[in-house]
């Protein structure tokens, strides 16, 4: 009997020790807004959008302490449309993020579906709207598709040293017989010290299609994005700036791939750049957000555009907030840029958002 009691106590202590070294959390965002879009060829559109400020999601993340400064980690995250209760990408599960990895004193290596270093720089350093709302950078910057996140990806994240940190990402194209077709490479170097944050990010995606039975090979070359972004906290306001250069096929795909304004369909630029200036400032108990952006298309089409946006976020608590935002795009020479939000590409050249966001 005594032995059984001792054995039970040992097992209980072991279980307690294991649980103390392992942590799993459920997290997410619930976001919905009334969105009014104007200026599209199809006419006005009024709708409820699930995720105008931040795409709604539910996720699971965990870590396990392996000892000697090493830990295992994972993240599984799926997107949800609050307006319909469906997945935000049909026939997928954990489409937003799905990776596992190891963290050591020398850095972290993760494998799976992950954000690109270029998108992280745009969302975390360059844009006061964090790529959401009607006034965010998605209106003119090529923040869609494989520029945002990639599958079959290996990411190395360096530890912060004297304010410097960085990321390297490699996405396998997984096309038999050709190791370069479809692959994507990205990197970012970051510096943060006090009120200043600066980041230089690069993205290179190969658009070739390898030969296969029944498949004709295609040679399109690579699309490249290079961005320098910074923000500085003056306390009375936080200033943001970014300059991005796009070169090559599929470097700057149009967010709205249709013909939103009628006439001759717009052409995605193969050579151009974008500039963003922005700010966030405390006003009352909330925060004002604002952006000014310009798209310079250097091709013969010269399809330039300008955009501006303004918003206000009013916190109800640490996790809940109300928000409103307005964005406007001025297209030139048949350009087809629309006012986006975090979850939809938009149908017109102006849009208004009024919503609520809750994190958990």
Automatic annotation (TrEMBL):
Cellular compartment(s): Cell outer membrane
Domain of life assignment: Bacteria
Entry keyword Endoplasmic reticulum: no
Principal place of residence: membrane
Keyword Metal-binding attached: no
Residues passing through the membrane, by range: none
Subunit structure: Homotrimer.
Protein name (Swiss-Prot/TrEMBL): Porin
UniProt source species: Massilia suwonensis
Lineage: Bacteria, Pseudomonadati, Pseudomonadota, Betaproteobacteria, Burkholderiales
